Every structure is written in C-alpha cells, then in structure tokens.
C-alpha cells in the first residue's frame, strides 16, 4: 500500500459517531441525492457517508464504492449488512491505478470524493475516470481536510479537475474542510 494512503485503523475513527459533532453526513450529501439515483463514492473508508447515502437513495438506488484497502471494504460491507442496506451498496476493491468502473460510464448521478483526492498520486486521471461515469447534468462533491491540504493544494486539485473536464459550480461550507461542487464543463 502506498505510504500516502491513510492507515486502515484510521477508518474506525473516521466512521465513529463522534465525528458527527462536526460532520453530519446526511446534511452534507442530502442536497445532491434523491430516491433511485446511482452514486459513485471514491475512497469510502468504512462507510461514514456510504450508509447514510444508501438510506437516502432508497431501495431502487445504488451506492458504488471503490477503495484501495481491503480492510476498509470488508468493514464497510459488514456495516452495510448490519444496517440491512447491503443490496444498495456495491463495494469494490481497486488497485489504486484505476477505479475500474467502466461499466458505469454515463450512469452515475452523483459522485462523492470526501477526504480522498490528496491520497491519490494522479489526481487528473482520477477526475477523468469520475468524469466518464457521470451523466451530463451530474454533480460531484469534492471535499478535502484543511489539516492535510492547504488552500494552494486545493486550488491545484481544482485545476486538475478542470483539466479533466470538471468545473466548479459552487463552494459549499463544510466544517474543517475545503469544499467544491463540480459539474461537467459544458464546452468539453
Ligand atoms: C481519509 S480516508 C476517508 C474515508 C471517507 N471518505 C471518510 O470521509 O470517512 C481516505 C480513503 O480513501 C481510500 N483511498 C486512497 N487512495 C485511493 C484510490 N486511489 N482509490 C480509491 N480509494 C482510495 C483510502 O483507502 C481510505 O479509505
């Protein structure tokens, strides 16, 4: 595992209910979701956002999760089963070189990239792969922790997203984090 990826045991802290004091997952993602939609979540960890999203998309919706760490995926799957949401969650392990989500080309309504992009060596490639999964009017919520990512670094991430065909549509306030809502560049 590359050393820039957060250790698997941090996954337990990130999925802890204590985190709700500053990140309320339902409030953060609800504006972008409705019943029946397909979500792509890159780097879900142990599912702090995945389970709430699986509830919000309803029985006809789906949350496709891609992570590079098997321990994260296994814990996420266990939590999903315990919450009786397993059928709505499609959890996948990837090598890190690619998301391997080609079968979702033009099928994703919303993508969540929360506290993951700074761990990815080739950000532009990641954004290109996310771009390919999106429908024309789909949105991406990108958020990065201020503790790990400076404002300059976040600007560079937004520039990589733009080169991949994603432009900033809004800048939501997310406690302790940078935030941007991205949509497909119309001219691309
Ligand atoms: C800091 S954790 C954030 C987890 C979750 N998004 C949250 O906010 O609770 C970053 C996660 O991204 C995953 N990750 C790192 N690089 C990745 C890549 N190239 N593709 C997919 N997932 C990746 C890590 O394994 C880890 O689960």
Per-chain topology:
Blueprint: H1 10-14, H2 25-29, E1 38-42, H3 50-57, E2 62-67, H4 70-82, E3 89-93, E4 108-114, H5 123-133, E5 134-145, H6 151-163, E6 166-170, E7 177-184
Helix pairs in contact: 5-6
This protein binds S-adenosylmethionine.
Description:
With 188 residues, the chain is of the alpha/beta class. It contains six helices and seven strands. 43% of the residues are buried. The longest helix is centred in the middle third of the chain and has 13 residues, at 70-82. It has a seven-stranded mixed sheet, sandwiched between helices. It has one domain: 3-Layer(aba) Sandwich (Rossmann fold). Helix 5 (123-133) crosses helix 6 (151-163). The radius of gyration is 15 Å and the shape is globular. The protein binds S-adenosylmethionine (SAM).
